[in-house]
Amino acid sequence: MGNSALKAHLETAQKTGVFQLTGKGLTEFPEDLQKLTSNLRTIDLSNNKIELLPPLIGKFSFLKSLVLNNNKLTALPEELCKLKKLETLHLNGNHLRQLPAAFGQLLALKTLSLSGNQLRTVPTQLCGLRHLDVVDLSKNQIQNVPDTVGELQAIELNLNQNQISQISVQISHCPRLKVLRLEENCLELSMLPQSILSDSQISLLAVEGNLFEIKKLRELEGYDKYMERFTATKKKFA
């Protein structure tokens, strides 16, 4: 991509606060963007070949949305965690194995998508994020859901297409969790905490494609209570 084309994109971004450059084969984060650290609200560099997010990402203090789907990121810099206004972070289809230690400092974060990475567990850093609404961890390599999940504030948690065979009973204590997606995992029915049905806020539980038949789920104690929540929610949105 030529310099003149990049320059045109930068000029537009300066006016709009949005820098979008997708599917251009970029191998690195455009250094020239640092001229716009105080302008940019949105950066979208999806469908490129970026392997590294430079520390200068921490300078975009007004950034609300960062989208880097389908790149080649293997790690994220700690500096990312300085983005105090960041509300949306999409990193689907990369090679991430973990999140920075200070990730819990992204206090404005509402939507986090990490589908199609190489995470092996639900990152504990997510538990401190009070405004988190939607967390997508589908298509990773997660094998179990640890006790810390009970502190997660999300409304929707997507864990479809992982390798989950164990879930902590603490998941039923998530204060705001309404939608739990666990399709296509390795769950035996006996490993699904019954308190999810009998004693949680969850009103949509998606568990198709595990190691049990859905009709067996309906025989569990607490299923009636779950159906009450399910139906009430359905009526609300009908």
UniProtKB/TrEMBL annotation:
UniProt protein name: Leucine-rich repeat-containing protein 57
SMART domains named among the record's database cross-references: LRR_BAC, LRR_TYP
Keyword terms of this UniProt record: Leucine-rich repeat, Repeat
GO cellular component: cytoplasm
Gene3D superfamilies linked: Ribonuclease Inhibitor (3.80.10.10)
Keyword Repeat carried by entry: yes
Top-level lineage group: Eukaryota
Pfam families documented for this protein: LRR_8 (PF13855)
Annotated organism of origin: Pygoscelis adeliae
Matches recorded under InterPro entries: Leu-rich_rpt, Leu-rich_rpt_typical-subtyp, LRR_dom_sf, LRR_domain-containing
